[in-house]
Amino acid sequence: MKPASRLTRAGQMLARALGWMAGIALFSMMLLTFADVISRKFFVAIPGAFELSEMLMVVLLFSGLPLVAWHAEHVCFELVDAMYKGRSAIWSRRFMDGSCAVIFGALAAATWGLAQRTIAESEVSSRLNIPIGIFVYLMAVLLGAAAFMHFLRVLGGEPPSDNNILEAE
C-alpha cells in the first residue's frame, strides 16, 4: 500500500467518524426541538432544552471543520489560481493546506489552554450545571483534527472523488 493511499484511508476513516458525529448531533437537535415544541404545546417546556441545543450546535459545527478541510470545501477566493498550472498548482495547494494546518493547530492549542482554565474554574452551564470545559476540550480536539486533515492533504492524501463520507465501501 502506497503512503498516499494510507493517508487517504486515514482521512476517509476520520471523515466517516466525524460525519456520523455531526449527523447524530443534528438528529439529536431535531428530536430535542420537536419534543420541546410538543411539550410546550401540551405541558411545559423541557428544562434546559436551549442549553442542550447550544452544546449540540458546538458538536455539529466543530465536527464539520475537519470534514470541510478534508474535502477542501471551504470558502476561497481564486484570484490568482488561474495563473498556476501543473506542479505550481500542486505546490500552491500544498502551501495553503500547510498554512491552514499551522493556523488550525495554533487555534487548537489556544483552545486547549482555554479548556484547562474552564475546567480549573469549574464553569458550568447555567441551568443544567453541565461542565462547559468538556465542550471546550472537544472544540480543541476537533480543531486539531482539522489541522490533521490539512496536514494529510499536504502529504498527498486526497479524499475520494465521490465525496460521500457516510457510504460504506
Structure characteristics:
mainly alpha; 4 helices
Describe this structure in words.
There is one protein chain. This protein is mainly alpha-helical and 169 residues long. Helix 1 (3-42) packs antiparallel against helix 4 (132-154). The chain contains four helices and no strands. It has helices at 3-42, 49-71, 87-120, 132-154. The model is unreliable at 162-169 (pLDDT under 50). It has one domain (3-154). The radius of gyration is 19 Å and the shape is elongated.
Task: Give the topology, please.
Blueprint: H1 3-42, H2 49-71, H3 87-120, H4 132-154
What is the mean predicted local confidence, pLDDT?
84
Largest sheet: none
Question: What percent of residues adopt helix (DSSP H or I)?
Answer: over 70%
| First-to-last CA distance | 17 Å
Strand content: under 5%
H/I helix tally = 4
Return the domain count: 1
Number of distinct beta strands: 0
- Calculate Rg over CA atoms: 19 Å
Q: Can you write the helix and strand succession as a string?
A: HHHH
Oligomer: single chain
Shape descriptor: elongated
Helix/strand class? mainly alpha
Parts with pLDDT < 50 across at least 5 consecutive residues: 162-169
